[in-house]
Model the fold of this input.
Amino acid sequence: MSDLNQKSSTKDTRPYSGYHNRPVQHSDDFITQVGPGTPGGEYLRKYWHPFLIASELKDLPVPVRLLGEDLIAFRDHSGRLGLLHRHCIHRGTSLEYGIIADKGIRCCYHGWHFDVDGRVLDTPAEPQASKIKVNFVQGAYLVKEWMGLLFAYMGPVDEVPELPIYDCVDNPEDNQAVPFRMQVPCNWVQIVENGADPIHNAYLHAIVAGQQFSEAFKVLPQLDFPETPLGFLSMATRKVGDYIFIRASDIILPNFGQFPNGANRVEKQSVGLRPFLTRWSVPVDDHHSFYMGFAHLNSYNASVRKMSKEDFGVDRIPFIGQTGDRPLAERQREPGDYDAVVTQGAVANRKAEHLGTTDKGVVLFRRMLAKAIRDTQDGVRPQKPKLYNNAKVKTYCHEIVVKAPEGVDFTDPQKLADFGRSAAMYFVEFEDFSPKEREAMVTQRVQELLNALCTAAG
Ligand code: FES
Ligand SMILES: [Fe+2]
Done:
């Protein structure tokens, strides 16, 4: 495996020393490979992954490439979902040209007929006594539908985990979870790392490349990455005018993330679970991915930025710089996430990086991921999101805006960071409560914490 801790050594710091400082050789990366039989691929195959918006599946089979495998998805005429190896086990014709049946799909070439679970139902040109039907199956994977997304499980059939149902889709009460799917021509790990890198919100989205987020993001934050039961929070705490603004995103292994919107102007107090985007970073293969999930349209998110259902869909999301279809000059003048992440390379050369202190979240994610992959190699079942007594899986993504009390010196970076972490972790401490109760309890504890700081400051 590659050594994630290896630092590039300082070689030659003279001006114009490009010759002496060329990037070190790229190496196959333990954490980035997704194909069958690779350590990372085997780990990812322990989880459910979304792969299509349900409405993308119409009356014809849809070719899908997922975790380096070529597949076709379809819904048979009985309404059952199928995800089969793309090439027919007879002589390899693509089932993209298969004819969907009441039960399963029939290959166009010689009519072999496969059920959604891969069983061979019929081999019409073969003699009655043929044993093909009992001796072989077309490779098939389980598919489930949840909230307008189709999820696949591509791991061993005797280890099927529960499909995690997350707590983010019906809070607040008026929430509408709107599906989207965006293709990105690079490895999936880069997309997760972008979410674990909150300092880029200040530079790429506010200071350097254009005003994509609100003015508040120009204030440099204290960063922190406290661990949660399933991953960690990627958080930034800022003092914006008279307020303290805490913004915490979920990073949940392997590839789930939730992010508040970037439009908070930090003008009024508010404490709550505030995902705006819930997304999975899904590997197509080592060099291509998509991120997909839901945008949460609700009264809170609308209060900072108006959006409608129609703004989201396949390769559609209403933020600048999320696709590669803008003219190059426009992308150069105002680059966005797509430009920053894709240009790291189809697989970023991690051997040639020079990491700084703000990359702690990126490093933490790589370490957690590498450990989970090693554990899987050692036969240890990786940690999974659990349904607690059939309740939804708890998540932690939130925003907190509170008035900074006079007398407490929040220009002290450590004090600001400590306050941010304590406040954020109340969302973990009270995770067993309903979202409403959780928000009320966190609000109360944050106020108590501020009072205590005031008292201590005299
Ligand atoms: S190739 Fe599919 S039935 Fe012959
Ligand atoms: Fe971003």
